[in-house]
Specification:
372 residues; alpha+beta; ph1033 like fold; seven-stranded mixed beta sheet; 9 helices; 22 strands; elongated
Length: 372
């Protein structure tokens, strides 16, 4: 049996990990060492970053900075924030703190495209968006690198490093030291981890890049969510047949759809199904009772057509619950049963928003044969 204890070292001093082997009721403390090779720990973290205590997608290894430095590992978390991991095999000298701060000054200027470029330079098997979706079970956020954290990974830290890192943490500088202890006992190997500063405290201090890092928007493409549920308020087959998209049930749902400009290209997504159509907006948003659509070359009221959906909300609310309709000339559309979806495609709760994801646009252009 192995027995583990945590010994507090006091303010500013890391918690020490004690490991005992207990045979026959007699405890025998196991001695710890540093990992023999820095690359060995780098391999372990790259294979499973969760040993640091939280999931990460490693996007780069030995990443060269413009100042000539080399970041051992660069990762991204579920929120799109960057994590610098600087590994040291033995005791950490204070100079490494200045080193990671220099790395932080460099990554703070990385754009959305820069982050993806670092990932692509690593020659991974899957696109960034797919790898992100598979790791975190969600689509990537619109904005990457809105903040970052700096982590020194080592066996031990000298007194000056402890003082500097603890001091910086008081001023919300997101730097910390992850201390790993390596134990070997009767052929078995164990790895234990603790932190110099409270992990949650540093996480709340993640440094802001103070600028937008979203992918550039081409000013033309929009994402539209077409909500279909058991209430029967709207039906995709109506939208396909008469050429429109709609949203309502509250101001929050309709206000973004009402922003769609005439001429915009829209990529229509049915939540929990996938993408079902691409087209061009032909008229500004109108309340359902006032909406007109093209039927056999003539403008006719949508409300007078044969529709499966009701497009009328009966929920009693104080806010404007009117269903708004935007007419669309379809370039490609498919039944809901044939909706297109792959891991990494963009999805959003808004009824409409700018489509910035180049990965999604490229995938949909291919799936819907937009260049054909």
């Amino acid at each position: 049996m192995v027995w583990v204890t945590l010994e507090s070292g006091g303010a500013g001093v890391p918690v020490e990990v004690g490991l005992w082997r207990v045979d026959g009721g007699k405890p025998q403390r196991m001695s710890s060492t540093g990992i023999e090779r820095e690359k060995q720990l780098e391999d372990l973290i790259e294979h499973d970053p969760a040993i640091l205590g939280y999931p990460l997608l490693i996007i780069g290894r030995q990443v060269a900075t413009r100042s000539g430095g080399i970041i051992d590992l660069l990762g991204v978390d579920e929120e799109g924030n960057l994590h610098v991991l600087e590994l040291k095999r033995g005791r950490t000298p204070r100079e490494v703190v200045a080193q990671v701060l220099d790395y932080g000054s460099w990554i703070s200027g990385l754009t959305h495209d820069d982050v993806k470029g670092i990932y692509e330079a690593g020659k991974h098997d899957a696109p960034f968006e797919t790898a992100f979706s598979e790791m975190f079970k969600t689509s990537p956020p619109e904005e990457l690198n809105s903040s970052h954290t700096l982590t020194i990974v080592a066996h031990d830290a000298d007194a000056s490093t402890e003082r500097i890192v603890t001091y910086l943490s008081r001023f919300d500088v997101p730097v910390n030291v992850a201390l790993f202890r390596y134990f070997v006992d009767d052929g078995r190997k164990y790895l234990a981890r603790t932190w110099l500063v409270s992990e949650t405290a540093v996480a709340s201090q993640a440094g802001s890049s103070k600028k937008s890092t979203k992918e550039k928007w081409n000013g033309e493409d929009w994402y539209v969510a077409f909500g279909v549920d058991e209430s029967g308020v709207r039906e995709w087959e109506d939208a396909r047949r008469y050429g429109f998209v709609s949203a309502g049930g509250g101001v929050w749902y309709s206000k973004t759809l009402r922003r769609l400009p005439v001429g915009a290209r829209v990529f229509v997504h049915i939540p929990k199904s996938g993408y079902v159509g691409v087209g061009r907006v032909t008229r500004e948003a109108r309340p359902f009772p006032e909406a007109v659509v093209d039927v056999e070359g003539e403008e006719r009221p949508l409300a007078e057509q044969e529709l499966r959906g009701k497009y009328v909300h009966t929920v009693d609310k104080d806010e404007d619950i009117t269903e708004y309709v935007v007419t669309v000339e379809w370039e490609r559309e498919v039944p809901q049963a044939n909706a297109f979806w792959v891991s990494g495609l963009f999805a959003n709760q808004n009824s409409a928003c700018p489509m910035r994801s180049s990965f999604t646009i490229d995938a949909l252009a291919k799936a819907f044969r937009l260049d054909a």
